[in-house]
Backbone:
């Protein structure tokens, strides 16, 4: 049976792993290649690297880093952050990335999703959505969660799927960094409305939160950062507990 | 040992090259007929859409070359699918090495089939040292139907052929280069066939 996936996420700025709370207050969390290697050995199913460098120099560093990661690890990984064109993606895939995640650029120009899916196949196009629940509506945000848009989560996710997204990475801004659990209600709704895998992101604090997001949130994969980076949850313990709770997982 | 990865502009080839390097093999990327013919092992990769991949293969006359190769050949993912008779993906005719058709998963399940799933009913030396129900990484929307040439099966919506073999030709739907240490073992087995 297809397993649920556990995905550590590494936010990268100028070649280093960083982690913030509610998208701000960045602190250093180590060398990405070493972390990636460690997570692979500990049983991560996949990795996500989000490039939050704002400068061109930082982006060039990222391309080099992708090559280094591909040389060292043998599980799939996704790269996101600042991708705006087919050319960006071509280079990242050439350097060894398996999938890429687009966020703001796809909202500004939705055709980008079609272009990427047509050129590289929809299996490699992850559409990342940051959304915040405001007055009972899930409002999509761009630019690292700083700017609200006119779009709502469910409409935009459906459009992304129709345009060729192979997967949706949904980060709940209300939950992110709180360690109070994932946005399971919205996740379950996404999962029932779409026919592509959904990755839950934002809010992981305990092992039970992962159990809940798979059982109640119907997520296909769960992504987390700080609970792994700072050793609060060991991937092996997490997976053993998931298995005990009858969730299909790779040990 | 000379290993060539067929280069026809298909997606993530770097990972296969890196995986082989970890086994101590420096694989060459090439679409030159002479170079491929003279290799000890040939890997036929593929990520992306079937009809445009087939077009590129034909442009380079690889459609004539590949079915006539005599050394062990390993098709991976779309590479494997293109070695079958045909695929539903834009009604593309395949190389006809494996006598089976490639179909699309229905909307009863989430498509693409993405993530780790087990390989079962293993019956080939390609799987030496691999246990039944070992997890491999898969990402695909089309699958090869069960047939006499299958050497592994996987369940997703239905039971399909996740690996095929005919004479010197091998095909795997999963990505051994992305399937951790066990995937690495399968690549090692292929090199040591």
Residues:
């Amino acid at each position: 049976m297809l397993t649920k996936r556990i995905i550590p996420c590494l936010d990268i700025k100028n070649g280093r792993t960083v982690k913030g709370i509610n998208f701000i207050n960045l602190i250093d969390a180590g060398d990405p290649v070493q972390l990636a290697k460690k997570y692979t050995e500990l049983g991560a199913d996949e990795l996500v690297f989000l490039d939050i460098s704002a400068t061109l120099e930082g982006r060039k560093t990222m391309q080099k880093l992708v090559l280094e990661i591909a040389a060292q690890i043998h599980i799939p990984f996704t790269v996101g952050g600042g991708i705006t064109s087919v050319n960006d993606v071509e280079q990242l895939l050439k350097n060894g990335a398996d999938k890429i995640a687009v966020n703001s650029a796809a909202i500004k120009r939705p055709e980008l999703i079609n272009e990427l899916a047509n050129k590289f196949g929809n299996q490699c196009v992850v559409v990342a959505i940051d959304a915040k629940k405001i007055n009972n509506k899930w409002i999509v945000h761009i630019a690292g969660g700083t700017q609200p848009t006119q779009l709502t989560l469910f409409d935009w996710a459906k459009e992304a799927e129709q345009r060729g997204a192979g997967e949706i990475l949904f980060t709940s801004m209300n939950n992110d960094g709180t360690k109070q659990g994932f946005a399971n209600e919205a996740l379950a709704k996404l999962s029932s409305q779409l026919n592509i895998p959904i990755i839950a992101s934002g809010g992981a604090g305990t092992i039970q939160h992962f159990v809940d997001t798979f059982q109640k949130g119907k997520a296909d994969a769960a992504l987390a950062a700080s609970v792994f980076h700072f050793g609060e949850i060991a991937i092996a313990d997490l997976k053993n507990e998931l298995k005990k709770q009858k969730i299909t997982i790779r040990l | 040992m000379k290993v060539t990865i067929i280069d026809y502009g298909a997606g993530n080839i770097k990972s296969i090259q890196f995986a082989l390097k970890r086994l101590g093999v420096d694989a060459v990327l090439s679409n030159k007929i002479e170079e491929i013919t003279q290799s000890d092992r040939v890997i036929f990769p593929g990520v992306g859409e079937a009809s445009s991949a087939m077009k590129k293969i034909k442009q380079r006359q690889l459609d004539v070359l590949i079915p006539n190769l005599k050394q062990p050949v390993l098709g991976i993912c779309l590479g494997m699918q293109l070695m079958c008779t045909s695929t539903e993906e834009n009604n593309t005719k395949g190389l006809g090495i494996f006598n089976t058709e490639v179909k699309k998963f229905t909307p009863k399940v989430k498509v693409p089939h993405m993530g780790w799933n087990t390989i079962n009913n293993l019956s080939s030396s390609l799987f030496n040292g691999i246990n039944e129900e070992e997890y491999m990484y898969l990402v695909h929307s089309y699958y090869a139907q069960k047939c006499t040439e299958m050497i592994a099966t996987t369940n997703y919506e239905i039971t399909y052929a996740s690996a095929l073999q005919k004479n010197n030709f091998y095909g795997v739907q999963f990505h051994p280069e992305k399937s951790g240490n066990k995937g690495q073992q399968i690549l090692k087995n292929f090199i040591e066939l």
Observations:
- Chain B has one domain: 3-191.
- Chain B is about 25% helix and 35% strand.
- The mean pLDDT of chain B is 95.
- The interface with chain A takes residues 11-12, 14-15, 18-19, 21-22, 47-49, 107, 110-118, 135, 137, 139-141, 155-156, 175, 177-181, 183-184 of chain B (CB under 8 Å).
